[in-house]
Amino acid sequence: MQAVRGMNDILPDAVHWWQKVETTARQVLELYGYREIRTPIVEKLELFARSIGESTDIVEKEMYAFPDRKGQWLALRPEATASVVRAFIEHNLQADPSVRKFYTIGPMFRHERPQKGRYRQFHQIDAEVFGIDDPLLDAEVMAMLCDFLQRIGLKDIGLHVNSLGCSKCRPLFRDDLKAFLQDRASQLCPDCDRRRHVNPLRVFDCKVDRCREALTEAPELGRYLCEACRRHFDKVLHYLSHLHVPYAVDPRMVRGLDYYMRTTFEVITDRLGAQNAVGGGGRYDGLMRDLGGPDLPGIGFAIGMERVILLLQQEESLDFKKPDVFIAILGEKPVTEAFRLAQDLRGQGVAVELAHGGGSLKSQMRRADKLGASYVVIVGEEELAKGRVTVRHMAAKEQTEIALENVVTFLAAHGTSKNT
Ligand code: AMP
Questions:
Q1: Contact 133/297 with Cβ under 8 angstroms?
Q2: d(Cα 82, Cα 89) in Å, to the nearest integer?
Q3: Cα 303 to ligand 1 centroid, rounded to whole Å
């Protein structure tokens, strides 16, 4: 049996990267006042169709959707925003004004063609803020995203920013884009030829070369922004500059989901080949209302954890947690005493690996060495009869006999220093 294509096991040798990324994300998010929320992986299909948009690639082609045993259509979540908004509405979280910022970390599912950096089950760190319509927040959200990437140790990441306008100004752009695409219809791929009628902005997402070429002289959204959207965007850029967050305005960045409006952004790398987006997000002020909730503005982003980890692995190597102490056991009799000692040490926060299955002292020492234990405690029959054990410091290659009753105190003081 093999795992499903595009869905990866995260093996023990890689998992410490995941832990590092998650721990840093939690620290940074909580520093900025975000609270964790966890929503189910399965939702009603309609939630994603209505929020992400019927004519997006995600909903049209990539969703894992299936009827359950009663015929209700469900889907594995392809992203987290819709679920967090649904939970906010369902539990009337609006009633508690102290909680406006949320984060969630977990797997998402999209049936894309797998390649390096693109999988069918992937993981996102997702942040969402509701109820604040302030360009300062847009800048803060982007600053936090960059802060996280910097703290985790990623270099050479570019922040791209754009404004998608609002329901007032975007239709004008849409009409002009439609007319522009009509003139180039013969150049477009069959998908884009269809998209230009139903959702022309989505043509900007297309990766097909001839569609990209067709768009080189396409109208730019930035020129269509209404006064309010222009002011909002100018302020966002002003705050970013003021905070010395480097950014580039990218007028062609539309993002692959329909709910975005005004500020959108992506963090881009040139070190991952075709999968160059590490994270992205934007404002979605009408989404909560469209999903049947209060008319509260929203903004958020998602970071792709696999891509962050691929980048980190290019830059440094991480050591896994090694045991502080390995307990070698010589003979049958000392087994129970060794087990008790292991439990006492663990009780004091010392990480212990017990020699299971015995073997010669030499083979046990070899195993301790391989595991990278700092100390080995040798529990042998004869010494134990005298109430003593041998403690060996592996790096110094020095060993001493210690009274059994002093071992825990000694190792609790010395044994954990390396690893904690
Ligand atoms: P999106 O929800 O499409 O805005 O994606 C946000 C981030 O999630 C992207 O910038 C990627 O880092 C990551 N991501 C999206 N789709 C995939 C995928 N199929 N495999 C791995 N990472 C992904």
A1: yes
A2: 11
A3: 7
Between 27-31, 150-154, 219-223, 411-415, the lowest mean confidence (pLDDT) is in: 411-415
| Other CB atoms within 10 Å distance of the CB of residue 9 | 7
Residue 420, pLDDT above cutoff 70: no
Crossing angle of helices 227-242 and 135-152, in 10° steps, is 40
pLDDT attached to residue 329: 96
Check: CB of residue 127 under 8 Å from CB of residue 29. yes
Q: Compute the distance between CA of residue 23 and CA of residue 344 in angstroms, rounded to an integer.
A: 28
DSSP one-letter string for 20-86 = HHHHHHHHHHHHTT-EE----SEEEHHHHHHHH-TTSHIIIII--EEE-TTS-EEEE-S-SHHHHHH
Cα distance between residue 350 and residue 341, in whole Å = 11
Nearest partner of 263 among 279, 280, 245, judged by Cα: 280
Pull the structure tokens for residue 153: 């140790």
Atom of ligand 1 nearest to the CA of 281: 4
Give the number of the atom of ligand 1 that is nearest the alpha carbon of residue 119: 20
pLDDT at 99: 82
Name the closest-CA residue to atom 4, ligand 1. 280
**What is the Å distance from ligand 1's center to 275 Cα?**
9
pLDDT at position 418 is: 46
Per-residue pLDDT reduced to its tens digit, 256-315: 778 889 999 999 998 888 888 999 999 999 899 999 999 999 999 999 999 999 999 988
Q: Give the number of C-alpha atoms closer than 13 A to the C-alpha of residue 285, restricted to the C-beta side.
A: 16
Q: Is the pLDDT of residue 393 over 60?
A: yes
Beta bridge partners of 108: 122
Structure tokens at 399: 């060993």
Q: In angstroms, what is the C-alpha Rg of the chain?
A: 28
Question: DSSP letters of 243-259?
Answer: TT---EE-TT---S-TT
| Angle of CA points 381, 384, 389, to nearest 5° | 110
Arithmetic mean of pLDDT over the chain:
93
Q: Would you state the pLDDT for residue 416?
A: 67
- Beta strand 158-163 with 248-249 is parallel
Ligand 1 contacts (CB < 6 A) are: 79, 110, 112, 117-119, 122, 124, 256, 277-280, 302, 304, 306-307
